[in-house]
Amino acid sequence: EESMLEDIDFLSVILQYWKDHCSQILCLRSIFLCLDRKYAVPSTTILNIWDIGIYLFKENIVEVNIISRKLLNGLLLVIENERKGETISHHEVKECLNMLFELGIYETYFETKFLDETAKFYAVECQRYLTEYPMEDVLDHFKNRFVQENRRIDSYLKPTTRDLLIKVVEDVIIRNNVEEIINKGLESLIQNLKMKDLQNMYSLIKRVDALDLLSNAWGMYIKNKGLQLIQEEKSMIKDLLYHRDLMNEILESSFESNPDFTYTLKKSFETFINMKLNKPAELLAKYLDSMMRTGKTQRSINHNDIEITLDKIIMLFRYMGSKDVFEAFYKKDLAKRLILNKYSSIDTEKLMISKLKIECGAQYTSKLEGMFKDMDMSEEIMVKYKTAIPKGIIDMKVFVLTSGYWPAYTPVQANLTDDMNRCQEIFTDFYLKSYNGRHLVWQNSLGQCLLRAEFPKGNKELSVSLFQTLVFLLFNDQDTISYAEMREATGLAEKELNYTLKSLLTGRVRLITKVPKSKDFLPTDIISWRKDFGSKQKRIKLNQIQYMETKVEQKKTEQNIFRHRQYQVDAAIVRIMKSRKVMPHNELLLELYEHLRFPCKASDIKKRIERLLEQRYIERDAENNSIYKYL
């Protein structure tokens, strides 16, 4: 410690000697100015008085071993002390370095050793910080070190040292530790939402042109986190939207919207979200359905933010390969919203269609747009119908739907009342006279009714499905009825009747009871009307059953998707083989993956190839079974 103080104190001593020497040399040069100008300046071999003085000081003072060692150690120690947080005299250090520069030994005598000591100092410090401190403190400290080194250069080091010094610090602090910094810090910083620290990490790694490592690590985190999120189906879409928002915020606020990182974000989402095949697309359509419907979910969303939310949904939709799955389920849910009047805003519905049209083209949304046209046309038809019908007819609203636009519905037979049948007949006659050559099929399963029910505790209005209506009307003349009698009276199939009764027996509002209380239905079961029913509500909705998706409906939608995909695969195979004529199996698979817009397993493609072989669209090569020929 005493030696260190001697070396540091020696700087002021040698500096004073230098100043005195320079003053004396200047005095001598003034005295012998004429001699200096006449003989030394014109000559190429004779040194002038100033140069002689510099040479003598360097040879007799600076280049003496003990003086040289103390001077160099003193400079290195005082700079190290400043790096450790001590206050030093910048002026004194600057004067000493100016002396070395004037003597012509700044680079060889000081700079090389200074850069070596800098590398050693930061190597030790980096290991200590990376081991003992949290990553946010490490990154902040490393960032401050560059600020300090630049300030140090501006204060007393020579400008020529700047690039060399910064490169040494970059190599030791960042380049040698970049993988450790990323591995230890990236995930924790993202999870703790440390945007500023992530920005520090990005700016530091950018210095050493290692952003590809950060981009790859970020992409791996996105995929791993996404794979966890898609395992939980109930909250999948909500979690994915938050995950996408968070990653996009990191991209914009911390990663400077770097195009390479933007591509990494896109590819990472596409990778993990399509590992689940069709499920994310199905759940996204259902999430959108819950948002578009009237109810608690919709009321919780600020209408000013709806378009922003739709844009986020479209962004998630963009990553999905199974866009046909989304279309099928979205179309099915949209149909129910429109028919059952469950949409919150028709403008929001149309806005979503326009966004899908921009994203996927007019062909993708042509049927969806056709559904809205049918709704508008139905309104016009009903205006004409109400002016043409005779008085005394039950008030009725009919939606005339074009079968090609809407999901396929299987007609369900039921014994409607005489009044209902009469209404249907009158409308059918009216419509066919106005639109000759068309055919109407009544979809009873989608019908709704508004009933007036009388109870001792007050009359109520019941919003129910058509099938629920047929059940309730049986209690006009009786309070109890057996299951067998009810089935015969309604004409409903056992499956439809059971589903209807379960909705009335297990719902929040129960107007009927069953004896015995069991899940199964037997012909001898007795269904009774609850005369003692009471409620504060005047209008009671019981037709939620129509909006609920059954397992049969879901399976039917999936089957329609699979069948449609088969046609697309067949068409793609024939189109490719027609252009190529002869093609090996593996090359055909690769080209098919490029053409198809949905994920498809190799085993499924193989089945379609076998099918086309049977139908003689293609054949195998006689010598090599893995080669196909177009016929």
Report on this model:
This protein is mainly alpha-helical. The protein contains 26 helices and nine strands. The protein has a three-stranded mixed sheet. It has a three-stranded antiparallel sheet with strand order 3-5-4. A hairpin with a 6-residue loop joins β8 and β9. The termini are far apart.
Shape: elongated
Rg, Å, rounded = 42 Å
Structural class: mainly alpha
Largest sheet: 3 strands, mixed
How far apart the termini lie comes to 94 Å
Q: Number of helical runs?
A: 26
Strand percent estimate: 5-15%
DSSP summary, beta strand count: 9
* pLDDT averaged over residues: 87
Strands of the widest sheet, in order across it, are 1-2-6
Question: What level of helicity do the residues show?
Answer: 55-70%
| Poorly predicted segments | 1-5
Helix and strand arrangement:
Elements: H1 2-31, H2 33-40, H3 49-62, H4 65-83, H5 90-103, H6 106-132, H7 135-155, H8 162-174, H9 178-191, H10 195-207, H11 211-229, H12 236-253, H13 259-273, H14 279-292, H15 296-299, H16 306-319, H17 323-339, H18 346-360, H19 362-388, H20 418-434, E1 448-453, E2 460-465, H21 466-473, E3 480-482, H22 483-490, H23 494-505, E4 512-515, E5 526-529, E6 539-541, H24 551-580, E7 582-584, H25 585-595, H26 602-614, E8 618-620, E9 627-630
Parallel strand pairs: 2-6
Antiparallel strand pairs: 1-2, 3-5, 4-5, 7-9, 8-9
Helix pairs in contact: 1-3, 1-4, 1-5, 5-6, 6-8, 7-8, 7-10, 9-10, 9-11, 11-12, 11-13, 12-13, 14-17, 16-18, 17-19, 17-24, 18-19, 24-25, 24-26
